[in-house]
Amino acid sequence: MRPLKSKINPNSQQFKDNYAEMQDLLKELEEHMEKSRFQGKEKYQQRARDRGKMLARERLELVLDRDSPFLELLPLAGLQKKGGFGAGGTNVSGIGLVQGKLCMVNSNVGTRKGGSIDEATNFKALRIGKITEENRLPTINLVESGGANLPDQAKIFNYGGEAFRQISRRSKMGLPTISVVFGNATAGGAYVPGMSDFAIFQKQAAKVFLAGPPLVKMATNEEATDEELGGAEMHSRVSGVSDYLAEDELDGIRIARELMQFIDTSTGSFVPQGPIKEPIYPADEILGVVPANIKKPFDVRELIMRISDGSEFSDFKPEYGGTMVTGWTKIHGYPVGILGNNGVIFSESANKAAQFIQLSNKNNIPLLFLHNTTGYMVGKAYEEGGIIKNGAKLINAVSNSEVPHLSLMIGNSYGAGNYGMNGRSYHPRFLFAYPNSKVGVMGSEQLAGVMEIIQRGSAKARGVEYDVQQGEMIKQMLIAEAESKSSAWYSTSELWDDGLMDPRETRNFLGFSLAILYNQEIKGTEGYGVFRM
User: Closest Cα partner for 417 from 349, 322, 468, 359?
Assistant: First the structure.
């Protein structure tokens, strides 16, 4: 493969303006990430330390191998949820190495709302379970949770049980769960260690029961202490719920790491060999290449050459369907096919992408979708040209492709273009986003304009005069509402992505994600639904 040649001038005013605007977004991103790292008020943290406890992120760091990479997932879930526990909820989750093996690690933040589970934390846990199953990973749970947050029970109960089902299904698939209990695991929280393949309880600290002393007293009039109902020693010596009795937190973590030595995991279907070429162009330039203002166009190849090995890219059909860039490259030594938008999707672009997906499946190469499109092209000529059937070919190919998919929102992702580019509803293995990205049915101004046309038509049909002043007020309200609910902050809060990233970290995020995908055999398909010709 030949390296791509950049046409960007880092000294241009446009580059400098883009860079400055993206830096402002990254400052806001860091402020939100700081909120997600909140582990409870200082008094609760101090209380934990006085009791000899570690904080959630300290436990997580100790269970991982020294210098292991860690791909934190959904750190901003619930960011904008009113009445919730804030960004990230009460669980820190991500993928790292334990005994050299890829592993999902979940650590309850017991010093934040007692580790109890609000709506966002619940749905975060379910998404984490899905990622764990699809990527065939063992799990280590570092448990200290008060169970469901009772004011949220109506929003949690009918969905929360899925987490226990996921643990059981993964066990059947040979994907074990190890739970280390450092404190409370109450009510539904008791089923986390209860459903696990291995349960480790810390002596004189773990309290695991379906109902605590007050509820037992109310239900049965029986009086019992925490230790009698659910203490670590009782469960280790009497009930058998615990498999290992740990002397302290460090001993519990030691046992979990020891178990990982003997857990059989995939050795990977492909491991890169030899030296890995770095991109020719520095990652820092991405801030000036990708506009913070998504209305500004740019060539997606300029991003590709700053994340791919040696800036090399085998461009497929470069002269055809120019608003869809397709081709193969390597990222950190891992082969990947890339589909990237250079604007609206025309029939030629959709056909080219569908063919490229078929070829990648034939050759067992995973796919990366780089979203920056306002959707499929509309208008009389394009309808006559079959934009619906050609767009459907792309959606058919995406839907039936069996190689793993990654998606990255780098700009717009509107309408059916989001579907054709493997948006959230098409179940990519991982979906990440830049803080400038927007997701929605259409752009805010287009949406407001459409509504204005409808309102004018309605007024005319009723034989009344259209109120221009009121119409303008409604239009501006619609624009503000649509802008707010298509923003990256809203999307990540609603778990429409698995995390926002600093664009300069794109190569590392994607490289580690590909290592996870290549941890199992990649096998494409030769079968698709009916392509309407």
Answer: 349
